[in-house]
């Protein structure tokens, strides 16, 4: 009888994204790009608890490559990020024919009108302000996910 391979290193190579070994077709995949560890962990936990599959990235560059690798259904993108800020990440996403249709919600700590108008003008699908209120964010996410599903 042949012994089954159980090498965790080998298994990790085939993982498409993050720590999720396989993608469940019935789950909506969210990519969260946030450099603040507390915000990232809290939001990630809350989304996971509500049944979303969550991938996380800690800076703009990582966010962009995760968006490419993971094909998320929606991206939550912090505007203020190291390496590459949210505006620059969005520019790259919109220039890529495979990623330009992924809905992107900008997240920012600053409730400034200029930020909001900048975000909309830059091409974000929506905008939300930290601290995040889950019912409000979930409503925005659902609106975008539902309109995407109808395409
Ligand atoms: Mn930030």
Specify the number of helices. Answer: 6
Q: Give the termini separation.
A: 50 Å
Order of helices and strands: HEHEHEHEHEH
Strand content: 15-25%
What ligand molecules are bound, each kind once? manganese (II) ion
Protein architecture, described:
- The protein is α/β, with parallel strands linked by helices and 151 residues long.
- Strands 2-1-3-4-5 form a five-stranded parallel sheet, with helices on both faces.
- Strand 3 (74-78), helix 4 (86-94) and strand 4 (104-108) form a beta-alpha-beta unit.
- It is 43% helix and 16% strand.
- The protein has six helices and five strands; from the N terminus they run H-E-H-E-H-E-H-E-H-E-H.
- The chain starts with 7 loop residues before the first helix and ends with a helix.
- Helix 3 runs parallel beside helix 4.
- It is globular, with a radius of gyration of 16 Å.
- Bound molecules: manganese (II) ion.
- The site of manganese (II) ion (MN) has 5 residues, from loops.
List keywords for this structure.
alpha/beta, 6 helices, globular, binds manganese (II) ion
Outline:
The protein has helices at residues 8-13, 37-49, 60-70, 86-94, 113-122, 134-149; strands at residues 29-33, 53-57, 74-78, 104-108, 126-129. It has 151 residues and is of the alpha/beta class.
Give the SSE layout.
Layout: H1 8-13, E1 29-33, H2 37-49, E2 53-57, H3 60-70, E3 74-78, H4 86-94, E4 104-108, H5 113-122, E5 126-129, H6 134-149
Parallel strand pairs: 1-2, 1-3, 3-4, 4-5
Helix pairs in contact: 3-4
Bound molecules: manganese (II) ion.
């Amino acid at each position: 009888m042949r012994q089954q391979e159980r090498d965790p290193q080998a298994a990790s190579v085939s993982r498409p994204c993050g720590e999720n070994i396989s993608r469940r077709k019935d789950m909506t995949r969210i990519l969260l790009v946030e450099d603040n560890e507390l915000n990232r962990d809290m939001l990630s936990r809350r989304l996971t608890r509500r049944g979303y599959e969550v991938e996380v990235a800690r800076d703009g560059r990582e966010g962009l490559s995760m968006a490419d690798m993971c094909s998320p259904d929606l991206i939550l993108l912090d505007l203020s990020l190291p390496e590459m800020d949210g505006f620059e990440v969005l520019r790259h996403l919109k220039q890529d024919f495979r990623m330009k249709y992924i809905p992107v919600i900008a997240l920012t700590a600053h409730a400034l009108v200029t930020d909001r108008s900048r975000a909309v003008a830059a091409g974000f699908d929506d905008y939300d302000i930290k601290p995040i209120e889950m019912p409000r964010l979930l409503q925005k996410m659902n609106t975008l996910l539902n309109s995407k599903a109808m395409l």
